[in-house]
Design brief:
By secondary structure, this protein is mainly alpha-helical. Helices cover 82% and strands 0% of the residues. The chain contains three helices and no strands. InterPro entries: Apo-CII (IPR008019), ApoC-II_dom_sf (IPR023121). One of its GO terms (molecular function) is phospholipase binding.
């Protein structure tokens, strides 16, 4: 799911950057038809959605979830090994004394 989102965002950014290389023609506002206005509105909404998705991706990267998960695993492993060692010592002393 995350890969699909990243690919979608990258394709959208590529499409928007490729479109920016076009040279706009000089058009009077009166010549713009309804379809052109609708197209411009849809493009602006699309650009807003792409920017929002990019912001969300940046926020997710900013959380550093992967690093937190690794730290949690390491700390949990250390704690478990300590308590298992204590339990092993207790069992040894119970059965051998």
């Amino acid at each position: 799911m995350n890969k699909l989102l990243v690919i979608t965002v990258l394709v959208a950014l590529f499409a928007l950057s490729a479109e920016s290389f076009r040279v706009p023609r000089q058009v009077d506002e009166e010549e713009q038809g309804t379809i052109t206005k609708i197209t411009d509105t849809v493009k602006s909404y699309y650009a807003g959605a792409v920017n929002t998705a990019s912001d969300y991706l940046e926020q997710i990267k900013g959380l550093k979830l992967e690093e937190k998960a690794k730290n949690l695993y390491t700390e949990t492993s250390n704690i478990m090994s300590t308590y298992l060692g204590i339990a092993q010592d207790q069992l040894y002393h119970i059965f051998h004394h």
